[in-house]
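Q: Structure for this?
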Amino acid sequence: MTKSASTLNHIAADADVSPSTVSKVLNGRSGVAPETRERVERALRSHGYSPPGERRLQPFVELVFERVESAFATEIIRGVQRAAASRGMSVVLTESGDRHTPGPEWLDGVVQRRPSGVVLVFSNLPADSKKGLALRGIPFVVLDPAGDPAPDVPSVGSANWSGGVLAARHLLELGHRDIAVIGGRHDMMCSRARVAGFRSELEGAAVPLDGALVWGDFHREDGVRLGLELLRREGRPTAIFAGNDLMALGVLEAARMLGLSVPHDVSVVGYDDLEVARWSGPPLTTVRQPLAEMGEQAALLALDARADRPLRAARVDLATSLVVRESTAPPRR
Amino acid sequence: MTKSASTLNHIAADADVSPSTVSKVLNGRSGVAPETRERVERALRSHGYSPPGERRLQPFVELVFERVESAFATEIIRGVQRAAASRGMSVVLTESGDRHTPGPEWLDGVVQRRPSGVVLVFSNLPADSKKGLALRGIPFVVLDPAGDPAPDVPSVGSANWSGGVLAARHLLELGHRDIAVIGGRHDMMCSRARVAGFRSELEGAAVPLDGALVWGDFHREDGVRLGLELLRREGRPTAIFAGNDLMALGVLEAARMLGLSVPHDVSVVGYDDLEVARWSGPPLTTVRQPLAEMGEQAALLALDARADRPLRAARVDLATSLVVRESTAPPRR
């Protein structure tokens, strides 16, 4: 029996596990219960071994999307890229697949790759994975535009409620009083917050929303369908606020189908300021969610975490702003 | 003097260079002339050292953009991601900055990172860098939607000329005879090929293009400006083919500004099939450039290159196809 095999056996005996479990922990593989892993790591240290969590992190940021698609991805990538470059690092992109939750294979991969920081977009990390990353000293931050973070995880989002206020203030200042709202998914914090901010500002001006609030699902088709419904009503609204840019594009399409001119017959305000908002006909007035800055901030938070100054489970919300283009104007009397 | 310092001195003497040059080569740094590097690498081998080019490649694909922006990026990333995942690899993203040519710092970085393959988007690689990557056994492929590859570099693009043919055939079949074209940048192969294919199909049907060909610069604004010009002409065209989707969106906007209905007063065909083509008002009929497949193909070509079967400087052009949506219809008589 070689010396190292004998050491392995000693460690296994100390930790009360099989030698193959020790080897799993040493190689950063999954399939070991957290308590067992901790016991093995203590035994490893007492024998002068470094558990994988204490080996050097590699100079890159790992950026995890459920899927790299949607107009969101490009901006987020640019922001994370910017943060990594400022530290002389590169960016590794991974996809967690068709679920909000990266699986155990992903965790294995991360542990092998040992990034200096992980940014998870739109993700819920199961408790096991959180513990796994924390144990290995890999700092992670959730980039969460949906505004619904787990309470024990550091995350970056944007100010949805204030964004809604900005949209309402703009329409009120233009003189609109007959205003309708197409909210995004009703079960998502971000859409509820946007609508709540909008409504609160209207209430401050004593302008009722009444029956003119409907809910969609963030797709362009929802904007077409609900836009048609609102614009066909007797006493048609003079302005519509949509909970994201895609639904606002749908409202533009609904107006076009009805032969209504935007902004002369109806003003439209979107939310997000995706690239496409500049390209629509007419270009869209919208609330800007600073996705690139959010990506940058999330990456920097992760990279600046250190053993002596670990990440707190804080929430950072970056400011939103109003971008006025050509889809809004004073109402025609 | 330690043994290794003495070995370094021997190697330096053998290669007739300074020890610091040997150390540069060993660490894969730049600033060494190619002939000198080769001499040092021979000397290294004769002393039993592995030059960096012979060390193991790491399990990831490096994807290099000039800038991660434009609607192109997301699709390309998805394709490269798919190829990498099929080999159990991840993707590293880097930006070469505001130039078409990645600089020497980039080459240093790649040599340190040692990707299994490199995909360069829209890039011209200087001769030095090509040689540098080749020397180190790192295979690279240029993803080149612009259709203008250097002759000695493997590259992936798409069939621009045939794409133009498809667009023309569609409009002819609908019955259009008064057709105008807004070409993309006249100095780019891809735009010239699209227009040439389009024109060739019209000529086959004895439909003249005459004065109805103008050139833009691929921006939405060009589509607005040139679209207004064409649509204000006496004997207005019944259909306009634009050299990319952004210019086609501009034509939609021009029609909207003139109170013309698309497709009833004028049909519009774009090129690229970016995501935004589905979202415009009306959704755009366009020629699809398979960007994700192009990214996938480029990554697989690079990954499948091996020392015993190196990449040839081949050009692969993937097929384009027509996507019919709502911006085209028969002309009104």
